[in-house]
Amino acid sequence: MKHIIIGTAGHVDHGKTALVKALTGIDTDRLEEEKRRGVTIEPGFAYIDFDEGSRAGIIDVPGHERFIRNMLAGAGGIDLVMLVIAADEGVMPQTREHLVILENLGIKNGLVVLTKKDIVEEDWLELIIDDVKQLIDGTFLKDKSILPVSSFTGDGIIELRNTLFQMLLNSPEKDENIPFRMPVDRVFPVDGFGIVVTGTLIEGVVKIDDTAEIQPYNEKYSVRSIQVHGESVKAAYCGQRTAISLIGIKRGNITRGDVLAAEGSLNSSTVIDVKLTMQKNTSRTIKNGSELHFYHGAKTLLAKVFLFDKTELHKDESGYARLKFKESLPNKRGDKFVVRFFSPMETIGGGVILDSKPVSRLSRNEAMLKALYIKETGSLKEIINQFVYESGSVFSDVDISLRSDIDILKLKPALDELVSDRLVVKLLKDKVISFAILAETGKKCTQLLETYHTENPLRAGISIAELRQKILPDLDVSEANAVLKELEKNNFVELSNNIASLFDFSVSLTPMQNEIYNNLKIEFENDKYDVKTPDELFVMFPKTKETTVRQVFESMISNGELIMLSKQTYWAKDNYDNAILSIKKFMDENGKITLAQCRDILGTTRKFALIFLEYLDGKQVLKMQGDVRVIAKGFDVLQVI
Hints:
- Helix content is 35%, strand content 28%.
- It has 641 residues and is an alpha+beta fold.
- It folds into 4 domains: 5-170, P-loop containing nucleotide triphosphate hydrolases (Rossmann fold, 3-Layer(aba) Sandwich), CATH 3.40.50; 181-262, Elongation Factor Tu (Ef-tu), domain 3, CATH 2.40.30; 267-367, Elongation Factor Tu (Ef-tu), domain 3 (Beta Barrel), CATH 2.40.30; 511-638, Orthogonal Bundle (Arc Repressor Mutant, subunit A), CATH 1.10.10.10.
- The strands form 9 sheets. Strands 7, 8, 9, 11, 12, 13, 15 and 16 form an 8-stranded antiparallel β-sheet that branches. A 6-stranded mixed β-sheet has the order 2-3-1-4-5-6, sandwiched between helices.
- The longest helix has 21 residues, at 435-455.
């Protein structure tokens, strides 16, 4: 069954409330002040039942200028509108302003209802119809029905009901699979239920026991009960007027203008990027730095405007802008809004949100304008690719879904296509990075390694741990390693033995350095496990060569030819590998090892056996258990990236 909201709009005292009562039998003036003054102050709510069982909600919004804020709060969830114009007065100022607001909110469907036809002559009615046609020309109501009715006599009400029913049948189906969202327009206590919040469910489905998140506070509560049109239900659907009570919520935890949403599905921000459009007949100008009244859902904020591509916006002009607020705004990309001039209060335009939580700095360069153009007009893949790029690092698909305000079910297939197109790189099971960001990181890596090799010509490269810290400081080790592996695939870096270097780099020794290298290599091969300390090695060479000897020694460590067990103990890589294989084989067969057994297996002294075992303890390969050592994390932890 389709669920839609029908809204009224129009000038004060043009018969909106009487029309709703004639259609539904429900009086939407619920406040005592409204009854006394004969004018709607707050949005009123009713419903209309059709013969085949469908039901549509109706929002009766205020028409008086002083109550324009409440009109905007009600208009946010409207699917189709009845623009109500009294036949005796015709088009009035709030008629025009309400029509502008409806256009800015992106409402696409509706009709015009001429009330009070019973008190005017037929020729006068024809004149009013001509005026209305001029009013709606060029708007979403052009070529829509104009129906004269009398709420007092009932004339035309049946035809109006039938027309509304046909519009309901022709209205598009709503996507109920996306996370639910409901801007809150009323908060009040109810005996037996506690605090109740109401609004129009504009997205998704909410069910009893669902977790609801109050934005912008990120507070979470369970849904206790749900009512739709005064009837208790187990679930409410997008397009329904809904009342929800939440378990444990207290007065003050939620207020009008807040948003109730599915957990983790909605951004809140004090900054948004938008496409701002001025209305055709305004005499006002929006300048860079202007302050405006901003209306979104049931929320009203003061916004400061920073224009991207212009210095001023005049009537009938559009432009990209960043809006800044003093309070956080719960919002989604694609949401519509209305802006009114700061003083005097006057509706001057509206727009669409292009980025609900910008991460980039305010910039007026071509790259920023291109990004905003993609967010406004791009395909699903182009928009996702833009947000992945702006994320600037490694992100999960859930992160990108929230960042771009694209539901995860729609995002995943498009993201997979971007991976196939090599615009996005999949690193881990659910982690991705923009290929453009990967390339930028690769260039940064290349520059760093070029500098390192120039300053350290005898070292094979920088340690992978140090490289991670320098170019990927904000990522955890697994994510950073995945990025480095992708950089290696794309020839930005070579990774070997915990060392990172440029692909075309190799250590080049002078004849004297080569002679020292060969002598050191022979010493380590001959000593095997009972090695000399570095100082004992250095004194074997002439004092004049000490600096060069130290450089060659450090080069052998950097190249991975020497493995440091302690500051005074280094083993040749081949000897180290043989020791690891021997001890691993023994542990696989026995499960534990003593110091004496290690000494005998390696054929070394107690001193070097102990140094080796303590090295394995430090790597968390083994651990002490009484007088023996047993497996801790195992030998796999010694594997390099």
